[in-house]
Amino acid sequence: MNSIPTVIKNLLIINVLAFLAYIVLSYRGIDLNGMFGLHIFLASKFHLYQFVTYMFMHGGWTHLFFNMFALWMFGCVMERVWGPKKFLFYYIFCGIGAGLIQEIAQYFHLYQMLSGMSDMGIATLATTVWGDPSLSESLNGWTTVGASGAIYAILLAFGMTFPEERIFIFPLPVPIKAKWFVIGYAALELLMAFSSPGDNVAHVAHLGGMLFGFLLIRYWARHPDAAGRYGRGNGEQFFERLRNSWERRKSQDKPVNEKTDWDYNADKKATEEEIDRILDKIRKNGYASLSKEEKQRLFDSSNKK
User: Fold this and answer.
1) What pLDDT shows up at residue 297?
2) Mean pLDDT of all residues in 42-47
3) By the 8 A CB rule, do 207 and 186 touch?
4) Which distant-in-sequence residues (6+ apart) come within 8 Å of 232 by Cβ?
5) Per-residue confidence at 138, pLDDT binned at 50, 70, 90?
6) Predicted confidence band at 287 (pLDDT cuts at 50, 70, 90)?
7) How many helices (H) and strands (E) does the chain have?
8) Is residue 13's pLDDT more than 50?
9) Are 133 and 248 a contacting pair, CB within 8 Å?
10) How far apart are CA 297 and CA 271, in angstroms?
11) Cα–Cα distance between 234 and 81 in angstroms, integer?
12) Left if phi > 0, otherwise alpha if psi is -120 to 50, otherwise beta: which for 254?
């Protein structure tokens, strides 16, 4: 546990403790999922705080395990790259975004159910439900729980940050690139959302988390100052130190006596072009895309005085 980043460690602990509390209190007739799960906003038990608390509730051991495993597997990498503040903001933001998309999807689903029984319009559905306490009470069973929306956003972030990184996914016999893994998962969720609407899995919420994650990452890319308010992770600091060291060395290097100025300048130009190419490769495809020789070359160049 000591090697797990701070935010990931606390998220794992909170989720496990919340699920244990749900199990224990259920024997006393207290339904924590009913209290802290996200209800459709037309239900009588809906509260705004549920947009946050639903992310820490789960429906079973399998649900909890796979979410926490994905959080640990991909979240540890992204927290080290972004730093704790930026990662936590991304996690909560995308979780709330997933909840909002789920609310919209449930609203339209309810409209489809009730439109066949009356002539109500989509805009008057809310007032109709709120005006009928028994109908509003019956919607309390429409509850969403789980961190899946935020987890899918983390998968997206990993795929966008390390698109060329190869990962093993059971039961596939060969590793696949992270970008294809993310695209495939999103396509599968979209297919399941339309083909299996009654399987009790919030496929739309998963897609909502990825959507909000994509929008936030794009916003940060276009507004670096906004992203910088959350601090920088070890990964960003590491690459910035490499760049700064390289720029300093390029400006301070002088010809040595063993070589003529012509030879020195030719070697220096070739080295600069090689390092610039490696740094450009990191910018486009991530550090993981470098070969072993390129990584060694980068470290060697940054350590020269």
Assistant:
1) 74
2) 92
3) yes
4) 82, 83, 86, 240
5) confident
6) low
7) 14, 4
8) yes
9) no
10) 10
11) 6
12) beta
CB 286 within 8 A of CB 164: yes
- 3-state SS class at 150: helix
Q: What is the pLDDT of residue 178?
A: 84
Question: CA–CA separation, 8 vs 84, rounded Å?
Answer: 9
pLDDT band at 305 (very low <50, low <70, confident <90, very high): very low
Average pLDDT over residues 65-77: 92
Peptide bond just before 84 cis, omega within 30 deg? no
Q: Residue 159 corresponds to which amino acid?
A: G
Name the β-bridge partners of 143. Answer: 39
The distance between the two most distant Cα atoms of the chain, rounded to a whole number of Å, is 92
Residue carrying structure tokens 């602990």: 13
Element (H, E) at 147: none
Question: How many CA atoms lie within 13 Å of 94's alpha carbon, on the beta-carbon side?
Answer: 30
280: nearest Cα among 270, 292, 290, 268: 290
Tell me the C-alpha to C-alpha distance, in Å, between residue 227 and each of 86, 89, 232, 282.
8, 10, 9, 19
Is there a contact between 58 and 19 (Cβ–Cβ < 8 Å)? Answer: yes
Nearest to 38 by CA among 30, 47, 29: 47
Cβ atoms within 10 Å of 98's Cβ, excluding its own: 34
